[in-house]
Every structure is written in structure tokens, then in C-alpha cells.
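Researcher: Re-running this chain for the archive, since the previous output was lost when a drive failed. Same request as before.
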Amino acid sequence: MPEGPSIVLLKELVRQFNNKKVLDAFGNASIDAPGLINKKVIDFKSWGKHFLICFPHTTLRIHFLLFGSYSFNEQTKADKSLRLCLRFKNGTVYFYTCAIKQLDEKPDDIYDWSSDVLNDKWKPANALKKLKALPDEMVCDVLLDQEIFSGVGNIIKNEVLYRIKLHPKSITGKLPAPVLKQLVKEARNYSFDFLEWKKANQLKKHWLAYHKKICTRCNLPIIKEDTGKKHRSSFYCGNCQVLYK
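Model: Regenerated C-alpha cells:
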């Protein structure tokens, strides 16, 4: 499942189609694709894992789920996987195996941009307030809560917790104030690092915990365990990542 930085990267790649008119639209998504023909794209936005294509009176919300993908100028997957193709004068974009919904509301009326860790309107104070309202939750769960850390996925979760030496099963309400603030700060910092490494095609090279076997700090085995209510995989060092409970 693409995380927030990957969606931001897609948003940058499609900028070439901003203010361009759709010449053709088709696919098997449950939307009015023909109704997009001759409509001009007025903006591309992202909110966490949601990719938004904005037209004057409607917005397409694309979620890539577990196996979604896209391609430019050439269809690379079978017709049954093709959810939407948008053809412009200067190129074509294809979306595969993703969920697409047509929204009548304006994005600003739906999304809280201050919860997106990569958005200019991100507000760490809001994240701290929301975390304090969930004192009994594990940090492995709250980091994946898109209403708090929109765009954070399992890779970022694991790498942030390893970076700040925090055990994934720590209870949020037991964290000292400096650790809680560090958690919020690094969720954003690592997301921007992720984006830069993704652009350079070097993301996996920088993983320190995710799918790793040995802790680089302690030279001890990395533990892999499904943790929290979401039962998502956590990779952590039981020696240097502190457990608060």
C-alpha cells in the first residue's frame, strides 16, 4: 500500500496535466468517466494516502489499496485491472487496481489538511492533542491513525519508532512529554526523508528496522511481531527500543 510520500511523488509527476483538458476518459471504475471529457483539471492534491484530481465541479478520489498502481503514456496492465485512463493533449495516465470515488464536495470541505504530515498546513499541536485523547492505545496503532498522522503507513511507523528508540507496544498515555513530542516531530521528519529517498530510488537502502534482521545499534536480532489492534507487522529491537506501559 503506497504511503503518503509516494502519493506526493505521484502528485508531482502529474503536474504536467494541470490546467489541461481531458480529451478521453475510460475504465471500469464506478464513476461517470465520459462526463470528464472536455473538463479541465484545476488541481491535483493529496491527503495522506488519498490522491485527488480536482475539476471545477467534481473531484476524483483515488486510493491505491494494497496493489494499486499507475503508468504514463502506455497501458502496462490488463483491461480488467484498468480502473481509469485519462488522456490529455500532452500525455496519458492510467490507474490500475485502485478504488476511485467521485466527490461532489470541495476537498477543503472534506479534508483536515493539518493532519497530513507532508502538508504545509500540518499542525503538530493538533496531533499532540489527539494523542492525549487516546491514552490507552499502543503507539503502533496511533501512528497508523490517519486522523492523527495522515500519510503514515507501516514502513514509516517502524522506522520512526526505531529512530526514536520507542517500543511499538508502548502505551501512549505512559509516554513522557518529551518522547510524545519527539514521536510527532519524527513522524513528519521521516516522511520527508522517505519522499527524498523515494525520488532517488534509494528507499530500501535506508531502512534500519523494516524487514531487517539485526539491530545496527545493539547487534541483536530484530523482532518481527504483529502488534496492536490493527495486527500490522512491527520490526523492533527489544533491547534499545524502550517499552512504556
